[in-house]
Write a structure and sequence with these properties.
GTP-bd_ribosome_bio_YsxC; alpha/beta; binds guanosine-5'-triphosphate; Rossmann fold; 5 helices; seven-stranded mixed beta sheet; binds magnesium ion
């Protein structure tokens, strides 16, 4: 699957702009700045496919990428963002509509910063995914940053919090887009979903 070249398809600003749901899709969700866009670039081996930046609130549209035969979807972040309040409110509403209402969404990868663990805003999204019956799998990002002991603690705390969400996959994937750690595991996980 990942031997192919991923391409940008479109940026979507309203539910009626979503492409036809005729292929399986997976999305990357998480707080602003957690590393969603960077992870898509790292997974696809394309440095600037999805635009990333150090400013939280970089991705403001639902960005679709084709990786035949599926779509990869880069979402705007939730939580704090450096953007006008009205703009943030608009994309957060869209994000929730998308997560709860996209029939061909097979799995949401929920990105959690390996330094910070699960926050209340993440739990709100997990509850929403549970209500919508969208399976989700947690990906810890930026695992190159914390000290090993701090990463272990964040991992244990994340496992405890996840236990109460029926829609959550029990396996966590630890990644670093910086060192490449965990990327093969994540690619294999996605490839396995496509071939079932
Ligand atoms: P929004 O679109 O604003 O919601 O953010 P995002 O989740 O798409 O984050 P983005 O990919 O733009 O990355 C945010 C910042 O984190 C950038 O400065 C990245 O270089 C950095 N970053 C992302 N992944 C990693 C990682 O694995 N390790 C390290 N050290 N930095 C990372
Ligand atoms: Mg982004």
């Amino acid at each position: 699957l990942f031997a192919q070249r991923a391409e940008f398809l479109k940026g979507v600003v309203a539910m009626d702009g979503l492409p036809p749901g005729d292929r399986l899709e997976i999305c990357f969700a998480g707080r602003s700045n957690v590393g969603k866009s960077t992870l898509i670039n790292a997974l696809t081996g394309r440095k600037a496919l999805a635009r990333a930046s150090n400013t939280p609130g970089r991705t403001q549209e639902i960005n679709y990428f084709t990786l035949d035969p599926i779509y990869l979807v880069d979402l705007p972040g939730y939580g704090f963002a450096k953007a006008p309040v009205a703009v943030v409110a608009k994309w957060q509403a869209l994000l929730k509509q998308y997560l709860a209402g996209r029939a061909n969404l097979r799995r949401a990868f929920l990105l959690i910063d390996g330094r910070h663990g699960i926050k209340d805003v993440d739990e709100e999204i997990m509850a929403l995914l549970g209500t919508a019956a969208v399976p989700f799998q947690v990906v810890l990002t930026k695992t190159d940053k914390p000290k090993p002991a701090d990463l272990e603690a964040a991992l244990a705390a994340t496992r405890r919090k996840l236990a109460k969400y029926a829609a959550a996959y029990p396996e966590l994937i630890l990644t670093s887009s910086e060192t490449g750690a965990g990327l093969d595991t994540l690619r294999a996980t996605i490839a396995a979903m496509v071939s079932d």
